[in-house]
Design brief:
mainly alpha, 188 residues, globular
């Protein structure tokens, strides 16, 4: 069953805002902030990069999305209903900075990479692009929020998130805080 659109919009709004642990209103959502650079990436990869393009920010955007994608694939399936919900949340959370066709292309690439490399290698690759502890916590938060959309965080999803937390050099407390924030956001 597809999640209710109002629930998806609620999750997208939560992802688009600063996390609960952030100090000060100026702290942006990492996904929304990095979406600015990713969204400016030309679809024609042979084109000259636009002024202001930040490849590290674009790589961080991809890492955040891939972490949630990996968690969504924890049970071995990522059906069309889940994909539609995932795309809707990411596009909405980015507030128009990233086009749906860019998210579709990214998801197709991520599926190919997961098929080629397997879950454990992809988790390691995500962690390589996340250098700061606050970014690592945000990666877990976004993954937990997207996982919670489908009836809460399952045991399989929690296992993938635990592997991700380990690769990101985060303690279990960070994982539990991300899951608690996701559950709290969905509860009201």
């Amino acid at each position: 069953m597809a999640p209710d659109e109002s629930l998806l919009n609620q999750v997208a709004a939560t992802i688009g805002r600063a996390p609960q642990y952030a100090e000060g209103a100026e702290y942006p959502s990492i996904l929304a902030a990095s979406a600015v650079s990713y969204g400016s990436l030309p679809q024609d990869h042979d084109a000259t990069q636009p002024t202001g393009f930040d490849p590290e920010a674009a790589a961080l955007f991809e890492a955040v999305v891939e972490s949630a994608f990996l968690v969504a694939n924890a049970d071995g399936t990522f059906d069309e209903t889940e994909q539609r919900a995932f795309r809707h949340v990411v596009v909405t959370a980015c507030a128009g900075r990233v086009a749906e066709k860019q998210v579709n292309a990214l998801l197709a690439d991520l599926q190919d990479l997961l098929t080629e490399d397997g879950m454990d290698k992809r988790i390691r690759m995500v962690a390589r692009h996340v250098q700061r502890a606050d970014h690592a916590r945000e990666v877990l938060r976004v993954a937990a929020l997207l996982a919670a959309v489908s009836c809460g965080v399952s045991d399989e999803e929690r296992q993938v998130m635990r592997k991700l937390a380990t690769e990101l050099r985060l303690e279990d407390e960070a994982l539990e805080a991300a899951i608690a924030e996701a559950e709290g956001a969905l509860a009201g």
